[in-house]
Amino acid sequence: MSRDHRKLRVFVMADDLVARVYHLTKSFPREERFGLQIQLRRAAVSVAANIVEGCARASTREYGSFLNIAFGSAAEARYLLQLAFRLHLIPDKDFYDADSAYHELLGALQKLLQAVSRMPQSREP
Predict the structure, then answer these.
(1) Is residue 62 exposed (0-12), middle (13-18) or buried (19+ Cβ within 10 Å)?
(2) Which spans in the chain are helix H?
(3) 40: which residues sit within 8 A by CB, 6+ positions away?
(4) Longest Cα pair distance anywhere in the chain, in angstroms?
(5) Distance between CA atoms of 96 and 81, rounded to whole angstroms?
(6) Which residue of 18, 78, 80, 117 could cross-link 102, Cys pair, CB 3.0 to 4.6 Å?
(7) Are the C-beta atoms of residues 112 and 48 closer than 8 Å to each other?
(8) Is 0.85 topped by the overall pTM?
(9) Per-residue pLDDT of the chain (125 residues; tens, 9 = 90+)
(10) What domain range is 84 assigned to?
């Protein structure tokens, strides 16, 4: 039996940020449709998707690896969000709220990664 990703606070946070990123990028200029818009969306989705995939893996080592990838994707998404803000593609308040949410998510993922690294390397339900 795999871990239930829906019970993880980091998954709920990441999933919320996917919806927020899609909303924020909806009004990007047409010329960004295949550039920054899609890259930011993919990075946001990657965070949640890697948490889900990690939870479905049998070993604690694999679980940790996918959480590590999720952490990297969250850092990437935060950077891309900051870039979009500097390019004036996102309004101030929306940016600061989303940036703060990514900061919180990165902290929560870091704590989870630390906890997982202390787990035995066998399957944990």
Answers:
(1) middle
(2) 9-25, 36-56, 60-86, 92-117
(3) 21, 25, 77, 80, 81, 84
(4) 49
(5) 10
(6) 78
(7) no
(8) yes
(9) 478 999 999 999 999 999 999 999 999 999 988 899 999 999 999 999 999 999 999 899 999 999 999 999 999 999 999 999 999 999 999 999 999 999 999 999 999 999 999 988 765 44
(10) 5-117
CATH of residue 101: 1.20.1440.60
Helix (H, G, I), strand (E, B) or coil at 110: helix
pLDDT, position 34: 86
**Neighbouring residues of 121: CB distance < 8 A, sequence distance ≥ 6:** 59, 60, 61
Give the chain's domain count: 1
Within-domain flag for 80: yes
Q: Note whether residue 83 is domain-resident.
A: yes
Burial of residue 122, with CB atoms counted within 10 A of its CB: 0-12 exposed, 13-18 middle, 19 or more buried:
exposed
Let me know if residue 108 belongs to a domain: yes
Coil, strand or helix at 59? coil
- Tokens 């390019």 identify what position? 87
Q: CA separation (Å) from 45 to 56, 81, 101?
A: 17, 14, 15
